[in-house]
Backbone:
């Protein structure tokens, strides 16, 4: 494989490496380099649902680049394929990261916070602290917090949805519209 060393700009992390696989066996080397907790950026194909103005829902497959915090690593020696499972840590046009729950907490709208225990064991201390603050905020404002075990199917499903969700006390404006309003008012 071709390896290119990229120094990471963040003080809290180590360094980055770009791997360009040249043959199938290179995936085996990648498997041996990756560790749980590493950040991995890779190209993948995802099924994306779209809704038209008439309300009809369609889906298409798109190629996108995801950045995930590695949770499990598996190597299929027959197909020479690497399978990595993890939580998305960087958004793109197809994958959003639930800042929505944090905005709802700021609006005191959360009645019940649903959170995966994995977020409290995250490798990145800043991420762990972020979710501890979110839990404290919800409890301080009279909300209930339900922590889901990642070893149970319900916790596993919640982890696939970023690991955090909320049941609201009252409806709030669509947060994506609110973000667009904020950005358009800055431009004036």
Residues:
């Amino acid at each position: 494989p071709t390896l290119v060393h990229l120094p990471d700009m963040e003080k809290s992390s180590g360094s980055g490496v770009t791997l360009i696989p040249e043959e199938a066996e290179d995936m085996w080397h990648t498997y041996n380099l990756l560790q749980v907790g590493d950040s991995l950026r890779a190209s993948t194909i995802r099924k994306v649902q779209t809704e038209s103005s008439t309300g009809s829902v369609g889906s298409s497959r798109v190629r996108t680049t995801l950045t995930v915090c590695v949770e499990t690593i598996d190597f299929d020696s027959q197909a020479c394929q690497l399978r990595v499972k993890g939580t998305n840590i960087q958004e793109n046009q197809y994958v959003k990261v639930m800042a929505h729950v944090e905005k709802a907490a700021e609006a005191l709208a959360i009645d019940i916070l649903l959170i995966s225990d994995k977020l409290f064991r995250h490798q990145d201390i800043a991420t762990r602290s972020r979710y501890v603050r979110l839990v404290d905020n919800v409890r301080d404002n009279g909300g209930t917090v339900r922590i889901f075990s990642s070893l149970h199917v319900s916790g596993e499903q919640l982890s696939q949805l970023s690991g955090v969700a909320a049941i609201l006390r009252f409806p709030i404006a669509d947060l994506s519209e609110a973000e667009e309003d904020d950005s358009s008012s800055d431009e004036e």
The chain has five helices and eight strands.
